[in-house]
Design the sequence.
């Protein structure tokens, strides 16, 4: 078992062995979460603060539940409503919180790099719950866990990531993680939604769904933000749905046993057809939510061990 | 009062030579140089074979007076300049308020005279409030001492406004300095597009935005015949356009900041905001291309683009952080990186740091010739040191070179024959 990080700021600094460690521990927490008593005390006595500078329901709930199931004292702070309005800087907010001695700080922020900046100023372990267009590591880890459990492995798979790659932190973290685990990654979307230099990430780039989905084992759809829908990046939601929305016809190009994923919340009829999303034989969207709690429990557990300097090899 | 600099390595950008010799200063001017004997009664400066070159003429220094004196004043900038071997600061008009009337310009000239140990030549805004709508009183401002007209990094979008201002300026022989950066493409951008920008998830601009704006400006120069200088050319793709404009006989010159010559986009690393500059740092390929262009003389001028920012405006997430870096004190040692890397010789380097900018602005300095003002820098090209930003004399210390290993130190600076800095 190896996990040497002080923080979980992104997938980029993680070693494949560390990713495996998180996923292995997550498997145990999936079992715990499915049991009758969903409680453990590994974070007992520790304080977890969730700081969300950007609206979030699912991710925040997932982190909160993960902390509570592990026995931590969890506090939620809705940052967009509070001190920023009064002109306090991010660093001052961080220092204020730091003075309250939290052990785990979960942060989401609308700007890339903001969580890294904050992590430099505090003593506790920081988990990135999404920063701008940069990274969303726990999402990539929960996606990886979902894939590993349904496909039986996390290597030599063909994974197609479809949609707004340019503005997506989920896409970046997934591209990095799937690449590190030696999978074949494809990105599909209109060129306006592809980041510059994407080909240098070691992925194959497509702007046609039929070609990109051919023989794919995993189809990962991304959410198209409303503010990108009107003429700036794509002509209209209906043209987007026609060309890039996942429906049965397009999915038929993928392998017969291909799974369909979506980080949520979905725009039914924009990037994904409702019946595909609800098809229990193809869609693993609900499993992703379940894995999310387990992965966050595992990540916080591992970071807390490093915080307490628990020797390696000791399991719960 | 005469000063005799003995046993110096004389760097003469005009002649393109480096020679060991002496230099005599009388009445603030260079009286003689070469193999001359020590005159009776002259004060002797022992140079110990170190380099003596014309002082740097730095086009585009931001002094935050009026408006933001806590970031940089004429006094602090002047001391920093003296310590950096900069003998003439050509100041930017992007202050609060902008320097767009003869009255504000006179305030600048007066403050400069009172507070700065080095020379200050002010630039004025091209349009009122730098808003790109109405041209300033170019004639009055010239009379008040403006050496060039620029809206800084606020690009004039309206080509009709710009073409009229250029036409009017041509009539007066005024120099216009522009920041070639397409305003549409570069809106909101914090870094140059590419793999690194995408990996960091930062809003990015294509390097093409520079060439587009330069192409547009050159077309307007062709139309109006104005004297034109591009403040910073930082990309390989813009170079052929510049070369063509010069070949076609247009009165076009270009500069580049020392940061774009010595750093690249990867230096941003883990969101380090001291590397947030305008235009954003470029790829290594672009950096090498512009270094070559300076060596060949295609790019005429190297500047520091000295832009003081306080700690508060830099301690923010990268894209929110203010752009700009201080450079007066690091310009010379950073430029020596190019020399030590073998990319450019000292006379050619001083052509870009001193001779060309002075000539472009019609100044007498920048030369080691008899009769030229004795604006000089004595420096040791080899002295190694590690830059500690807390030692900078600027009020703001937002340097990307903090902790960097550098080679090349200013030993003394003279302005009009007066010693304004001496390294202890």
Sequence:
């Amino acid at each position: 078992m190896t996990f040497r990080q002080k923080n979980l700021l992104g997938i980029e600094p993680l070693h494949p062995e560390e990713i495996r460690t998180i996923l292995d521990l997550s498997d145990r927490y999936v079992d715990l979460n499915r049991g009758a008593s969903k409680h453990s005390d590994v974070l007992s006595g520790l304080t977890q603060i969730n700081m969300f500078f950007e609206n979030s329901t699912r991710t925040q709930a997932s982190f909160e539940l993960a902390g509570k199931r592990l026995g931590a004292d969890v506090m939620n702070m809705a940052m967009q409503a509070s001190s920023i309005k009064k002109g306090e800087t991010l660093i001052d907010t961080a220092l204020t919180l730091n003075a309250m001695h939290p052990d785990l700080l979960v942060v989401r922020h609308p700007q890339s790099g903001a969580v890294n900046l904050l992590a430099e100023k505090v003593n506790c372990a920081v988990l990135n719950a999404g920063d701008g267009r940069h990274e969303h590591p726990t999402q990539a880890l929960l996606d990886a866990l979902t894939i590993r459990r349904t496909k039986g492995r996390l290597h030599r798979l063909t994974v197609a990531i479809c949609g707004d790659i340019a503005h997506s932190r989920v896409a970046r973290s997934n591209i990095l993680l799937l690449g590190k685990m030696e999978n074949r990654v494809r990105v599909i979307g209109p060129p306006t939604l592809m980041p510059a230099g994407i080909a240098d990430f070691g992925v194959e780039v497509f702007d046609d769904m039929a070609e990109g989905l051919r023989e794919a084992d995993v189809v990962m759809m991304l959410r198209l933000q409303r503010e990108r829908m009107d003429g700036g990046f794509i002509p209209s939601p209906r043209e987007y749905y026609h060309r890039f929305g996942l429906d049965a016809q397009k999915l038929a190009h993928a392998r017969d046993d291909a799974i369909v994923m979506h980080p949520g919340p979905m725009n039914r009829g924009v990037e994904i057809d409702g019946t595909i999303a609800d098809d229990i034989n193809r869609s693993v969207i609900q499993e992703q939510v379940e894995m999310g709690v387990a992965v966050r429990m595992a990540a916080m557990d591992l970071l807390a061990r490093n915080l307490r300097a628990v020797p390696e090899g000791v399991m719960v | 009062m005469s000063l005799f600099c003995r046993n110096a390595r004389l760097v003469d950008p005009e002649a393109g030579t480096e020679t060991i010799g002496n230099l005599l200063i009388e009445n603030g001017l260079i009286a003689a140089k070469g193999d001359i004997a020590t005159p009776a009664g002259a004060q002797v400066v022992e140079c110990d074979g170190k380099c003596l070159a014309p002082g740097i003429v730095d086009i585009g220094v931001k002094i935050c007076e009026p408006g933001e004196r806590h970031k940089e004043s004429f006094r602090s900038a002047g001391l920093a300049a003296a310590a950096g071997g900069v003998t003439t600061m050509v100041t930017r008009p992007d202050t609060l308020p902008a320097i767009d009337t003869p009255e504000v310009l006179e305030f600048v000239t007066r403050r400069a005279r009172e507070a700065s140990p080095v020379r200050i030549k002010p630039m004025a805004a091209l349009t009122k409030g730098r808003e790109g709508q109405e041209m300033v009183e170019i004639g009055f401002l010239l009379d008040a001492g403006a050496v060039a007209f620029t809206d800084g990094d606020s690009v004039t979008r309206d080509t009709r406004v710009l073409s009229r201002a250029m036409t009017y300026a041509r009539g007066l022989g005024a120099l216009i300095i522009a920041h070639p950066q397409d305003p549409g493409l570069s809106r909101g951008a914090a870094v140059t597009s590419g793999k690194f920008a995408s990996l960091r998830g930062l809003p990015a601009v294509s390097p093409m935005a520079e060439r587009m704006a330069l192409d547009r400006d050159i077309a307007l120069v062709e139309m109006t015949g104005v004297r034109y200088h591009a403040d910073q050319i930082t990309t390989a793709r813009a170079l052929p356009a510049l070369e063509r404009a010069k070949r076609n006989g247009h009165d076009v010159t270009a500069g580049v900041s020392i940061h774009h010559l010595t750093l690249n986009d990867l230096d941003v690393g883990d969101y380090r905001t001291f590397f947030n500059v305008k235009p954003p740092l470029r790829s290594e390929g672009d950096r090498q291309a512009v270094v070559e262009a300076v060596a060949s003389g295609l790019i005429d001028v190297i500047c520091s683009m000295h832009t003081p920012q306080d700690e508060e405006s830099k301690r923010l997430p990268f894209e929110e952080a203010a752009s700009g870096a201080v450079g007066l004190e690091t310009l010379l040692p950073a430029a020596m990186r190019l020399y030590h890397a073998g990319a450019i010789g000292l006379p050619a380097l001083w052509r870009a740091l001193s001779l060309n900018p002075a000539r472009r602005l019609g100044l007498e300095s920048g030369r080691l010739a008899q009769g030229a003002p004795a604006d000089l820098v004595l420096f040791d090209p080899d002295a190694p040191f590690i830059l500690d930003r807390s030692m900078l004399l600027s009020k703001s210390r937002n340097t990307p070179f903090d902790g960097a290993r550098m080679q090349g130190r200013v030993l003394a600076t003279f302005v009009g024959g007066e010693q304004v800095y001496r390294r202890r």
